[in-house]
Amino acid sequence: MVDGRRRYGNGQLLPAGPLRELPERGSQCDFRVINGGEAGFGEWPMRLLADRAVPVRGGRPRPLDSFAGHRVHAVAGIGNPDRFFTMLRGLGIAVVPHAFADHHRYRAADFEFGSPLPVLMTEKDAVKCAEFATDAFHSVPVQAELPEGFWVSLLDRLQALDQNRGHESD
């Protein structure tokens, strides 16, 4: 998985840079999936789609576009918080961004924003906030969309691996 906009950043591993593995590792992978941005030759494009907001304390989800034209506090403690904020803005939501470090351990005090707006956050962050969430807290689940050809290629690769495994036991 490669960030399609930042690509390899400064080429450094965490915490000095954005990478979890060195770029050379990609040559050993069967598939290179590009999250956002433009996919190049031998790469598969992936988009993250979001269409609903789920109350963290439980209840009926509501369409994400129902927040369009309204201000919200957007919270993201992920590797690239701006991707989440940009997605929400693309839906016409007026975002007041609150970026936290990746894997941040949230406390209720982190949400003392000074204005009683709805709070939209990633699912990853919502799990960490369940014990102190209010009715204003909503998680935004995303779904990965990949081209049909990716799934065909993946199934073909898995079948080939399964056949090779069967021959090894002969």
From TrEMBL:
Keywords: ATP-binding, Kinase, Lipid A biosynthesis, Lipid biosynthesis, Lipid metabolism, Nucleotide-binding, Transferase
GO MF entry, a single one: lipid-A 4'-kinase activity
EC number(s) reported in the record: 2.7.1.130
InterPro entries: LpxK (IPR003758)
Pathway, per record: Glycolipid biosynthesis; lipid IV(A) biosynthesis; lipid IV(A) from (3R)-3-hydroxytetradecanoyl-[acyl-carrier-protein] and UDP-N-acetyl-alpha-D-glucosamine: step 6/6
Enzyme class: transferase
Biological role stated in the UniProt entry: Transfers the gamma-phosphate of ATP to the 4'-position of a tetraacyldisaccharide 1-phosphate intermediate (termed DS-1-P) to form tetraacyldisaccharide 1,4'-bis-phosphate (lipid IVA).
PANTHER family: TETRAACYLDISACCHARIDE 4'-KINASE (PTHR42724), TETRAACYLDISACCHARIDE 4'-KINASE, MITOCHONDRIAL-RELATED (PTHR42724:SF1)
UniProt name for this protein: Tetraacyldisaccharide 4'-kinase
Origin species: Lysobacter zhanggongensis
